[in-house]
Design goal:
The protein is mainly beta and 78 residues long. It has one helix at 2-7, and strands at 9-20, 23-32, 37-44, 50-57, 60-65. A 5-stranded antiparallel β-sheet has the order 1-2-3-4-5.
Length: 78
C-alpha cells in the first residue's frame, strides 16, 4: 500500500532554508499528484533532526513541531 502511495508523489524540492526556533533548517516539499495535498519537512542543518512537518490538503492543515530538550535514555540502558 505504501509503495502504491509513493508512486503518486512527485516534485520533491529543496526549498529555501528557513529558521525554526532559532535553528537553520533545510525545507523539503513534496506534492501528491491528482490531489491538492502538499507535505513539507524542516530538517536541522546542524543535527539532521526533524524540527517541523506540515501537511496541507485542501482547507485542512496539520502542523507538528519537534523538541529534543531533556531527552535521556531509560535508566536501565547504558
Amino acid at each position: 500500500m505504501t509503495a502504491d502511495a509513493n508512486r503518486d508523489l512527485h516534485g520533491c524540492t529543496h526549498d529555501p532554508d528557513e529558521t525554526i526556533d532559532g535553528q537553520p533548517a533545510a525545507k523539503y516539499t513534496v506534492r501528491t499528484s491528482g490531489s491538492s495535498t502538499t507535505e513539507a519537512i524542516w530538517i536541522a542543518i546542524k543535527t539532521g533532526l526533524i524540527l517541523k512537518s506540515e501537511t496541507v490538503s485542501g482547507a485542512s492543515k496539520i502542523s507538528n513541531r519537534y523538541e529534543y530538550t531533556n531527552v535521556q535514555p531509560p535508566a536501565n540502558v547504558r
